[in-house]
C-alpha cells in the first residue's frame, strides 16, 4: 500500500518566493514543501513580531516605476532658479505667502546689527503616481548664525497644550 507521512507539528509551509533548506524539504514531490524555522538565536527579546509568528509579507520587486519627467532640474543657487519660470513662480508664491501671513516685514537695518541670512531650498513635489505635482521653493533662515545676548535676548514659541484648552473651555462653560 501507499504510505502517507504528515509533517511534524513544528514545521510550516514555505512562504511564496522563499526556498526551503535542503535538510527540511520533503523528498516526495506530491507532498507540499515544508520548512522548520527555529527562532533566531540573536533575536531573544520578548516582543511578538510577525517574523516570530511566521508571518511574512510578499516582496513585490516588480512595482518599481521610472517615470520620465520633463521637470526642470533643481537649481543649485537662487540665481539659477531666477532664470527658470517654474522656479521663479515657486519663489514668488513663497514670498507672497510669507508677506500675506505676516511672517516677517522688511525694516531698515539698525546700526551695528548682525543680519541673519537666509537661503532658498528647492524641491520637486510629486503625486502618488510619480508625476510632478509642483515646484516647491522655501525661504529658510540660518538661525544658527545668531548669538544669544547679541542678536536676541529671549525666545518665545506660542504653543497651546490640549489640557490648557480644556481648562479654559470648562471655565467658560461654568
TrEMBL record:
Pfam families: RVT_2. Residues 1-32 are annotated as: Disordered. It comes from the Eukaryota. InterPro entries: RVT_2. Residues 101-173 form the Reverse transcriptase Ty1/copia-type domain. Residues 18-30 have a biased composition (Polar residues). This is Reverse transcriptase Ty1/copia-type domain-containing protein.
Amino acid at each position: 500500500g501507499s504510505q502517507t507521512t504528515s509533517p511534524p507539528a513544528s514545521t510550516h509551509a514555505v512562504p511564496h518566493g522563499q526556498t526551503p533548506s535542503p535538510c527540511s524539504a520533503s523528498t516526495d514531490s506530491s507532498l507540499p514543501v515544508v520548512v522548520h524555522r527555529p527562532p533566531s538565536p540573536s533575536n531573544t527579546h520578548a516582543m511578538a513580531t510577525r517574523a516570530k509568528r511566521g508571518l511574512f509579507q510578499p516582496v513585490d520587486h516588480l512595482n518599481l516605476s521610472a517615470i520620465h519627467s520633463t521637470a526642470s532640474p533643481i537649481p543649485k543657487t537662487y540665481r539659477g532658479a531666477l532664470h527658470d519660470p517654474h522656479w521663479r513662480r515657486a519663489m514668488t508664491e513663497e514670498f507672497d505667502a510669507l508677506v500675506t501671513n505676516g511672517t516677517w516685514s522688511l525694516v531698515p537695518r539698525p546700526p551695528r546689527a548682525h543680519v541673519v541670512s537666509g537661503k532658498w531650498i528647492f524641491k520637486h513635489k510629486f503625486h502618488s503616481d510619480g508625476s510632478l505635482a509642483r515646484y516647491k521653493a522655501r525661504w529658510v533662515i540660518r538661525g544658527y548664525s545668531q548669538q544669544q545676548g547679541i542678536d536676541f535676548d529671549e525666545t518665545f514659541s506660542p504653543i497651546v497644550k490640549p489640557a490648557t484648552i480644556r481648562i479654559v473651555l470648562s471655565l467658560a462653560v461654568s
